[in-house]
Write a structure and sequence with these properties.
- Helix content is 42%, strand content 22%.
- It folds into three domains: 88 residues, Double Stranded RNA Binding Domain (2-Layer Sandwich), CATH 3.30.160; 45 residues, no CATH class; 320 residues, pyruvate-formate lyase- activating enzyme (Alpha-Beta Horseshoe), CATH 3.80.30.20.
- α1 packs parallel to α2, α6 packs parallel to α7 and α7 runs parallel beside α8.
- The strands form four sheets. Strands 14-15-13-12-11-10-9-6-16 form a nine-stranded mixed beta sheet, with helices on both faces. It has a five-stranded mixed beta sheet with strand order 2-1-3-4-5, with helices on one face.
- With 482 residues, the protein is of the alpha/beta class.
- The chain has 17 helices and 18 strands.
- The chain starts with a strand and ends in a 5-residue tail after the last helix.
Length: 482
């Protein structure tokens, strides 16, 4: 499908909106100053002039809408496109015109400018967001605010990357190495990672920054041995001032990597929030996505974590996995709620470009989108009834139904790091292969990034070169905290 952008620069938002309606289509964006003599069908033609217009020509449908220029012109053109594509496809997107990652951040800004009711009205009337999602945004915004308020200009969080997994799930696009192929890299990787943690802690001390949260993710951190996990957590505990740390999360992730000795190492090392992620409670669906563990393995791991003494366990679920159904997802939710985890994150399947699902040409149909909407609606109802509330929310491109990922928790068990990283509240100092340090200028909200090498073999081989990049942290804060 061709998307012509004539005499304007709104093509990025219009492309994303088009993809929400046509997730399987390859969309070619053609920017030009005048309408081409020949338009290759099927096409969408968007034109900016004294009037704005959007017209489409598909095999069995053609239509044109226009409006006056002026006001928020990008919003006006997106509205024209939305109305045409809604009519053609019969799809009414729950998030309306919104395609961005952080709708709660937008809602908060609108609330600051126009008040609670004004923000809701703008979401519903101008952005065409459904009543259900507007309420979700409002509630999530309120719960997030309490977490944002405890951060200030000297706050930071620490992220540590463990880029190894037992196998790669079919929906995953993260840069991670199969532990079977990369086992020989792990001892040196852990040694250097501990060294990077010490170097990063020294920088934080020199700048008088205050550690708020620690998050060890990946990959699957529990692919490491209990001994390596102990070594890693010891490096964190002895390098940083942990007296200000409000939360220490480790992604145990895959139940097939969880053992009692690893859980004891995490607990004794200071971890107070653990993620044990089944994604689904269907063995058939687990097999479909390439996971080696079973539902029974998940229950065993969850019970083991309770036995070791973890008082905050999070579980991740994914709506829309291949072979799942609304009834199957309701069964998963019943099983999860019966365990009474302190927090649950409900993801929507995203068709990431480099995932195996996308590589195998999995197609998304209207029925899939309708099913995932039903799954999320049922899940949110179950979680609310179980005493959990939404505390953070974000979106990704190519999600089924153009939906969202939402974290839910019992009161007092919100995942602080999740809010800080998605809201870009404060600086994230990151260690390990594939990790990205995000430096936030609290005066202007400007973000600067420092990228680590993606792959463990690069990280190990070029470690000294990588550490030289840390000087940028000092340079960034030189004037900021003077």
């Amino acid at each position: 499908m061709n998307l012509y952008a004539v005499n304007h620069r709104f093509h990025y938002e219009l492309e994303n909106l088009t993809r929400a309606f046509f997730p399987n289509e390859k969309i070619a964006v053609i920017s030009c100053d005048i309408i081409p003599d020949t338009l290759d069908s099927p096409y969408i033609l968007t034109v900016y002039g004294e009037d704005m217009s959007v017209s489409v020509d598909f095999q069995d449908f053609s239509k044109k809408l226009t409006c006056n220029s002026g006001g928020d012109e990008e919003l006006s053109m997106a509205t024209l496109l939305y109305e045409i594509l809604k009519e053609y496809t019969g799809i009414n997107l729950s998030w309306g015109l919104l395609t961005g990652v952080r709708p709660i951040k937008l809602f908060r800004r609108l609330k600051g400018n126009y008040g609670e009711q004004g923000a809701k009205d703008y979401f519903r009337n101008s952005l065409l967001v459904s009543e259900e999602k507007t309420k979700l945004a409002s509630l999530t915004c309120d719960n997030e605010q309490k977490i944002l308020d405890i951060s200030d200009e000297r706050s930071f969080s620490l992220y540590i990357s463990i880029p190894f997994c037992p196998t790669r799930c079919s929906y995953c696009s993260f840069v991670s190495q199969s532990v079977e192929k990369a086992q020989h890299l792990i001892p040196e990787y852990v040694r250097l990672l501990c060294k990077e943690i010490e170097i990063t802690a020294d920088i934080a001390k020199r700048l008088n920054l205050r550690l708020e949260t620690v998050y060890i993710g990946g990959g699957t951190p529990t692919t490491l041995s209990a001994e390596h996990l102990s070594e890693l957590l010891k490096a964190v505990r002895e390098s940083f001032d942990m007296t200000t740390c409000r939360e220490f999360t480790v992604e145990a992730g895959r139940p097939d990597t969880i053992t009692e000795d690893k859980l004891v190492a995490l607990k004794e090392g200071g971890c107070d929030r653990l993620s044990v992620n089944p994604q689904t409670l269907s063995n058939e669906v687990l097999e479909n996505i390439g996971r080696r563990h079973t539902v029974e393995d998940f229950y065993r791991s969850f019970e083991l974590a309770r036995k070791v003494g973890f008082g905050h366990i999070n579980t991740d679920l994914i709506a829309g996995l291949p072979g799942d159904t609304p009834e199957g997802f309701r069964k998963t939710m019943r099983g999860i709620c019966e365990l009474s985890p302190e927090s649950v994150t409900v993801h929507t399947l995203s068709m990431k470009r480099s995932s195996n699902l996308t590589g195998n040409n999995m197609q998304i149909y209207k029925e899939d989108c309708e099913a995932v909407r039903e799954m999320l609606s049922d899940a949110y109802s179950s979680l609310s009834t179980s005493g959990l509330a939404p505390y953070y929310l974000y979106r990704q491109s190519r999600m089924l139904g153009n939906m969202e990922n939402t974290g839910w928790s019992k009161k007092g068990f919100e995942g602080l790091y999740n809010v800080y990283i998605m809201d870009e509240t404060h600086t994230i100092l990151a260690c390990g292969a594939g990790a990205v340090t995000k430096l936030r200028d609290f005066r202007s909200d400007r973000i600067e990034r420092i990228f680590n090498f993606k792959y463990p073999y690069e990280y190990n081989a070029r470690f000294d070169e990588l550490m030289a990049r840390k000087d940028a942290i000092i340079d960034f804060y030189k004037d900021l905290l003077s």
